[in-house]
Each structure stands twice: as C-alpha cells, then as structure tokens.
Design a protein that fits this description.
By secondary structure, the protein is α/β, with parallel strands linked by helices. The chain is 28% helix and 21% strand. Strand 4, helix 4 and strand 5 form a beta-alpha-beta unit.
C-alpha cells in the first residue's frame, strides 16, 4: 500500500431566479437570505413572491434589510454551494454590509440553512432555521456553530419534522460553548411561519455584533 496526497480544483456554474426587496441603497445594508420550503412543481418568481411568509417582507423593510429570496431549482434541494454562490452574487450586485449577513429558511429551507451554515459558519452573522432539522450533520458536529448565533423555531407537535431534532442540535451547540436558543410553539402542525411576524427576530438580528 502507498499513501499519497492530491490537489484538484472543481468549478461549478449555478443559475437561478430570485426575488429581492431593497432599501434606498444609499449605503451598505444588512442582508437577509430566506430559503423557501419544498415545492412539488416549478413556481415562477412572480408567484413565489406571494408565498413568502407573512411579516418577512414588511419587517425586513422596516429594519432596512436587503431581503433576497432565491428559488431552489426544481427537482433540487438546497445545496450549500448553490446558496453560497447566491450570497456572493447578491454581495457583488448590491451594497451589502458583509459583517451583517443572515440566513433563515422554512422546512426544507431550514435544512438548507443548517447545512450551509455548518459548511460556511464564518460567512454568516446569524441564522434562524424554522421547522427544519438536519441531514448530513448531527449533534457531533455542533462545534461548527459555537461562534455563530442561532435562533431556531419549531412547533412541538410537528408531524413532518420532529421538534426534537431542533432541540438536540440547540442543546449540543450550547454544550460546545455556543449561544444558540430555540422557541417552541405549542401547536400540532408543521407550519411555524408565524415566526416571521415576530419583530423580536429582527431585533435579534440587529443586536448581533
């Protein structure tokens, strides 16, 4: 047997659609990325705009955030490199305060939020996964989040994604010395999108240094 090393470069080209909501753009602004949940068919951006959770656009506008909402390619899932490439595109084409980039998402979008922040924890100032769990990551990799502010949200009686998945991850992050927290609603449905009406979430984003 021989032991060897290798070096290789891989380049991917990503294309996609998105909705964006902009403040006056007279200076650099915080950026909030929202990843939507699973869709069983392609939905154009014009229609997707109407499916953005209530309160998200209004509160982002009130806080002078750039709100960018990409569409996950149909038949796809939220790949971490796709999300990061989208973030880079928004930075390149808008006036973004790169110290204030936040990531949030619902259901499948929350899985994408967890996964992307796990792979690129230094890219984000804070994350807010809603009604989501984890795929390839687990509590044994919680140390990746210990310097990243995390606020998760879940319904106690979620019949699609277990609330316990979020609780385990939050507890594991804090055991590693992190500052993660979770809000659990006493409801028996999957949809916890009322989170985005909560002004405290946006105050929390703004409080992160």
């Amino acid at each position: 047997m021989e032991t060897r090393t290798f070096k290789s470069k891989q380049t991917e080209l990503f294309e996609g659609e998105y909705n964006i909501f902009l403040p006056n753009m007279d200076k650099n602004y915080p950026l909030l990325i929202y990843l939507h949940g699973y869709k069983s068919e392609y939905i154009p951006p014009e229609t997707m705009k109407d499916q953005i959770p209530d309160g998200l656009i209004e509160n982002a506008k009130e806080c002078n955030f750039i709100l960018a909402c990409p569409l996950c390619p149909f038949g796809f899932y939220w790949r971490t490199t796709f999300v990061l490439s989208f973030v880079k595109h928004i930075i390149k084409t808008n006036k973004v305060d790169e110290s204030k980039i936040f990531l949030c998402g619902t259901s499948m979008g929350a899985y994408g939020t967890w996964a992307t922040a796990h792979e690129f924890p230094d890219r984000f100032a804070g994350i807010a996964p809603v009604s989501g769990g984890v795929y390839e990551i687990s509590q044994y990799q919680a140390h990746r989040f210990k310097h990243l502010p995390v606020w998760a949200f879940h319904n106690r009686g979620d019949e699609i994604i277990r609330c316990e998945d979020s609780e385990i991850m939050i507890n594991s992050i804090n055991k590693e010395g992190g500052s993660a927290k979770i809000t659990i609603y006493d409801e028996d449905s999957h949809d916890a999108d009322k989170t985005f009406k909560n002004k405290e979430l946006y105050k929390w984003f703004n409080s992160i240094k």
